[in-house]
């Protein structure tokens, strides 16, 4: 196991930690808005660490570019979908826990 | 190193299953959209990691398509798919 593999493994463990944090928050948090927050932030950071671990193992630059493209797309879609759903929830008067 | 990829994939799969079991116990449609968001992010990570574990280079292309579709799905739901139990028939965005 080379140093690069060890760094990749460590990054993957951090990624799993963030994904687990997102799922636990999804279960524990009380209302739609805070669950949206958990899913669109913690999971995106987890995906970022997983992509970073894979970039270290990538064979060529095309793969690195595609991995970064995936992450940027997920971040952009997460942010915009979070905004759209929260906006719609406000208009539909979805209840929030105080 | 392969065992690390597989271990990560199994952890992510457990995350998806736990999230789905939780969300299917909910009745409202906006809660079920959260399952789509969960699939969007965790599913892309799972595609990438399983592809790496089996040594299949083209899984990166599949992940890019998944990432694109996740955005379209969320926008389509927020505009057209929001069912309100109290206001049936009134579905103008």
Key words describing this protein structure:
A: 98 residues, mainly alpha, 3 helices, 85% helix, elongated, B: 93 residues, 76% helix, flat
Short recap of the structure:
Chain A has 98 residues and is mostly helical. Chain A has helices spanning 3-28, 32-57, 61-91. The N and C termini of chain A lie far apart (50 Å).
Overview of the structural elements:
- The complex is a heterodimer of chains A (98) and B (93).
- Chain A is built from three helices and no strands.
- Chain A has 98 residues and is mostly helical.
- Chain A has one domain.
- Chain A starts with a helix and ends in a 7-residue tail after the last helix.
- The mean pLDDT of chain A is 88.
- Chain B is an all-alpha fold and 93 residues long.
- In chain B, helix 1 runs antiparallel to helix 2 and helix 2 packs antiparallel against helix 3.
What is the string of SSEs of chain A from the N terminus onward? HHH
Q: SS-based structural class of chain B?
A: mainly alpha
Number of helices of chain A: 3
For the residues shown, what is the average pLDDT of chain A?
Answer: 88
Q: Number of folding domains of chain A?
A: 1
Quaternary form: heterodimer
Largest interface: A-B, 47 and 41 residues
Kindly state the number of beta strands of chain A.
0
In the predicted model, the low-confidence regions of chain A spanning at least 5 consecutive residues are none
Instruction: Tell me the major beta sheet of chain A.
Output: none
Shape estimate of chain B: flat
Quote the distance from N terminus to C terminus of chain B: 49 Å
Proportion in helices of chain B: over 70%
């Amino acid at each position: 196991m080379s140093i690069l593999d060890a760094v990749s493994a460590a990054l993957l463990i951090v990624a799993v930690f963030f994904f687990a944090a997102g799922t636990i928050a999804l279960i524990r948090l009380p209302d739609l808005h805070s669950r949206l927050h958990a899913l669109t932030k913690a999971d995106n950071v987890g995906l970022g660490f997983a992509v970073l671990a894979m970039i270290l193992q990538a064979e060529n630059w095309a793969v690195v570019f595609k991995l970064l493209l995936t992450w940027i797309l997920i971040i952009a879609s997460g942010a915009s979908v979070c905004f759209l759903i929260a906006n719609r929830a406000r208009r539909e008067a979805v209840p929030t826990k105080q | 190193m392969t065992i690390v990829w597989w271990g990560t994939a199994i952890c992510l799969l457990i995350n998806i299953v736990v999230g789905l079991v939780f969300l299917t116990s909910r009745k409202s449609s906006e809660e079920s959209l959260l399952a789509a968001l969960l699939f969007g992010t965790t599913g892309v990570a799972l595609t990438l990691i399983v592809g790496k574990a089996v040594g299949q280079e083209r899984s990166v292309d599949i992940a890019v398509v998944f990432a694109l579709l996740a955005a379209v799905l969320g926008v389509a739901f927020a505009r057209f798919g929001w069912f309100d139990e109290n206001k049936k028939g009134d579905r103008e965005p």
